[in-house]
Amino acid sequence: MSTPVYRLMAHAFVATHTWEAYPDVREAMSKAGLNKDGVERGKALLAEAEALVAARKEESAEDRIGEHAIHMAVAELEMWLQTVRATLRHKVKAEEVIKRALDHHFHASEHTLSAVAGALRTLAVLRTDPRVAEGFDSSRALHDLLIHGQTLLTKVFTLTRQRLEPGLGTAVAPAYEALEAHRGKLISWLVELDRAVSNVGDRPDVVGLIGYVPAGVGLPLGGASFAVTLHQRAQQSPPDPAAASADCSGWSIGRQGRNRENLGPGFIEPSFD
Asked: What digits encode the pLDDT tens for the residues 146-159?
């Protein structure tokens, strides 16, 4: 499966914007190989990609359901970002960390790209700043927070990719074809960025700000699970160990309906009568 266009654009957006906005990032990345000329090329490629995305929307048939789905997915992603802000204030209690993770000031040509770029940086900063891991009592809680955000971000990528692709019965889509051709140019530029990131050295704080996590550094990220929200809810309201457990089927009701492995105090006998 090809990399979603919005992921490519967001990486270019975060990298070029941060290079210009943060002097320490600019200095470190310039020494590593991302100079002003490279940043300008990245900005030009990003602007062309944004124009092609807008052209693609114009040439495609109106899809109110698809647009609504993207709008709701972005809203969910932004709600997660607000959850991150509240969580960092409660657990980490360091304004510098909150600013690095959440004060993005990303303003792209469309709100969806701005939200995606912000989420990329937030996830990277959460994974690369050791103060974040130190502030959480449970590594499980932090991992759940990361997976939740990554899952919501992946949902936006999936919906935007579907929105840009030609629908059934579409014979000609010149803007889409031009966008697919432009994808290769974006990828080539990002390969140069990857090379610069690998040359930064022991500066995970720098690459975290541009939405990257260096190999072998920081917290891992992977997976997507509906159980994440259950984990988070349980950590917010932990049960009283002295209290008796209420009857609950749990996940003991499996496909066979007689999975006894997890039956015991607190579980009910599954039945399909």
From this structure: 989 999 999 999 99
